[in-house]
Design a protein that fits this description.
The protein is of the alpha+beta class. The chain contains 4 helices and 8 strands.
Length: 184
């Protein structure tokens, strides 16, 4: 059974939430770079033959390659050794990891599934991965977001810690999934 704690602004929950939002912003920037037209060209109307999913994936991979941030490595795939499985009904997966200092990584994905469905799935995934979980109380979630639209799971073991933040996507009412990982 997961432990419930009260949130206060000085806890690691707020740090995890800020980290998740940063990762989300990074993900949006990558998506925007991958979809932006070449410099000097002005968009006029939707292209009659939009790029295929394969071509968009190639464009996204190239944008990630072109985006060079010292100390970070952006990847168009999730490494197999990431400590928790990515959500199975997710799309637009973005992965970033540190290349210097203490090892850290982040993963952002989207799903058309509701946040409570994704939350239940990740609680089970943490249990299967033998991770201890701590979740904020309903009162704590109310203080920082609408209950039902925001879920936070902090999970850890002796060697590593994860923060999983699930937020309702205002575009499609699905879920924005953000996972931050670090070695202890």
């Amino acid at each position: 059974m997961a432990k419930r704690i009260q949130l206060n602004p000085g806890t690691t929950f707020m740090s995890a939430l800020l980290g998740a939002l940063l990762l989300l912003c990074l993900s949006c920037q990558i998506e925007a770079v991958a979809q932006s037209p070449s410099p000097g060209l002005k968009p006029t109307a939707p292209h009659p033959n939009p790029p295929s999913a394969e071509e968009r994936a190639k464009q996204r991979a190239q944008a990630i390659k072109d985006l060079n941030i010292p100390g970070l490595k952006l990847r168009p795939y999730i490494p197999e050794n990431f400590p928790i499985k990515p959500y199975p009904n997710a799309y637009n997966k973005g992965f970033v990891n540190s290349t210097s200092g203490k090892p850290t990584a982040g993963l952002t994905m989207y799903s058309k599934d509701a946040p409570d469905v994704v939350h239940k799935w990740y609680m089970e995934a943490c249990r299967e991965a033998k991770l201890n979980t701590v979740i904020p109380s309903e009162e704590g979630r109310k203080a920082i977001g609408k209950v039902g639209d925001l879920f936070i799971i902090n999970a850890d073991n002796l060697k590593q810690k994860l923060s999983i933040v699930l937020v309702r996507n205002p575009k499609d009412r699905g879920t924005i999934i953000s996972i931050s990982w670090a070695l202890k």
